[in-house]
Amino acid sequence: MLISTAYAASSAPAQDWTSFLPMVVIFVLFYFMLIRPQMKQAKAQREMIAALQKGDEVATSSGIIGKITKVGDDIISLEIAAGVVINVQKPAIQAKLEKGTIKAL
Is residue 46 located within the same domain as residue 80? Predict the structure, then answer.
């Protein structure tokens, strides 16, 4: 006979928890090196935007620097030059600057 007899394969070896250990380690590293710092930075940005008030000097994400003249629910009015006021959305505020920064420029 030219065809040999085929036998059923043996069962796969049982996997234990050590085979999942590399995936757990990678997830923990991602959490502490990527996810957690990004969450802390986003929280600090939200707190800074919530604490803005009239007279603060800020920089927008587009690079415009100005002094806050009016704070609304979603919109902030910035004076970028003498008599020139623009309206920007609150999330566009990138950073709060120290007092006197505009005069130093």
Answer: no
Range of the domain at 85: 53-105
- Is residue 95 classed as helix, strand or coil in its secondary structure? strand
pLDDT digits (tens, 9 = 90+) for 37-70: 999 999 999 999 999 999 999 999 999 999 999 9
What predicted TM-score, i.e. pTM, was given to this entire model?
A: 0.70
Instruction: Give every CB contact of residue 48 below 8 A, 6+ residues apart in sequence.
Output: 93, 95, 96
Q: Do 26 and 57 sit in the same domain of this protein?
A: no
Question: Exposed, middle or buried by CB within 10 Å (0-12, 13-18, 19+), for 93?
Answer: buried
Q: What is the mean predicted confidence (pLDDT) over 10-37?
A: 84
- CA–CA separation, 87 and 77 (whole Å): 4
Same domain, 31 and 72: no
- Rounded Cα gap, residues 37 and 18, in angstroms: 29
Q: Decide the pairing of beta strands 93-97 and 57-60.
A: antiparallel
